[in-house]
Amino acid sequence: MKLAEIHKLAVKMGIEKDPRGKEEIKRLLERNREKYEKLPEKEREFFDLESMENPFPDSRILVGDPETEVRAAMVGIDMEVPEVLLADRLRERGEPLDLIISHHPEGQALVNLDKVMALQADEWYRHGVPINVGEALIGPRMKEIYRAFLPRNHERALDAARILGIPFMSMHTVADNQVHSFLNDHFARRKPHTVGEVVDCLLELPEYRASARMQAGPTIIVGSKENRAGKVMVDMTGGTEGPREVLEKLSTAGVGTIVAMHYSEKHKEEAEKQRINVIIAGHIVSDSLGMNLILDRLEEKGVHIVPVSGLVRVSRARRKGGASGARGRA
Prior knowledge:
Layout: H1 3-16, H2 22-38, E1 61-63, E2 72-76, H3 81-92, E3 99-102, H4 107-111, H5 119-126, H6 131-149, H7 156-164, E4 168-170, H8 173-190, H9 195-203, H10 206-213, E5 219-222, E6 231-235, H11 246-252, E7 255-260, H12 265-273, E8 277-280, H13 283-300, E9 304-307
Parallel strand pairs: 2-3, 2-9, 3-4, 6-7, 7-8
Antiparallel strand pairs: 1-4, 5-8
Helix pairs in contact: 1-8, 3-7, 5-6, 8-13
């Protein structure tokens, strides 16, 4: 596959599983195009042109020629300077590595992380929070995240990749949308009754079983396993944690249990106050599940995957002859 084809496939898969729906995505892209067309000529060079076609500013080709043929990719959750050097070392030893894929964004994809957070309001709306309330709550949180990431040294890993001539891309929200949708479908099929049964549902999946064996498996941080789960909300996409103030709205809307990647201590305290059960499924392992669902498609198209940097690689890719199965560190 060419690098551009890999990127295009990831964006397509991200759109297919996005909580906003395809029509809202279409409207978003049209609004971005209108913004560009209204800009004075002197300001257009600073506009993110890809935002007119790609609704995920944290998922981008960051280094390299889009026409590069990719036979093998080194993939991890956090791909920084040490991982870039590792890729170069493996290439020195004869490994045909043509691409680095990071889940967490770097460069401009990291600077723009706040922009994907708006989709959280659409997910809350699906669970009963009015969209106007959701948008009012997410707006200040988006600005907070923008200010937090703005001063960082965004280009470190990308500079290393440029010097060593290794293409580099990120797949963030496109992958988070996969795990978000996958777990929603999984819980809908299994219909867990208690919080403990929600955890059991997670442990049916090989990624979470692998994480549990590493003592980092799903953990109940608010509530108990005997509690009835009620309405289960999966909180796995939208850049990073939303505002803790939304927990009151979700409780009022009838959400009984939240399954999340991670939660701050203040979010935990607010969930206790609102009597919402919270299960931390695990950050890196949940990221791994989302990435795996995209990587399977790449593997089916002949791209060899070299997992590093915490990626719990479990392959569900269909083999020649129609076989499929889970394999990897799990």
